[in-house]
Amino acid sequence: GVPAAPPLVISDTEKSYPLAPFAYITRDPAKKLNFQTVYEKHIRGPRGEAAPDRTLTLGSTGAPHWIVFSVENKTRAERWVISFGDYLSGRTGFIGDIFLYDQTSRVRYID
What we know:
Distance between the termini: 33 Å
Mean pLDDT: 79
Oligomer: single chain
């Protein structure tokens, strides 16, 4: 199988990082999962599937996916950007719902 993904460590030495090697993907075609279920699965295991390469491939069926990753910020910056690629990078799709959870402060953002 694919080995467990380490946390994405952000440092002052790089300007951008690929997300796929640090992400776990859980498909939810029945739309039965919720934040709490996916979060507990990520913390306690078993986690979703680790991305097999540097590209997040979610298929073309339109099935919901949960993408979970851990970030360790070793910079002085408190704000950073998550980019899934621009329109010309060949990555297109729709996001129906999105939210972020900060485990350190236990705060949900963008809900």
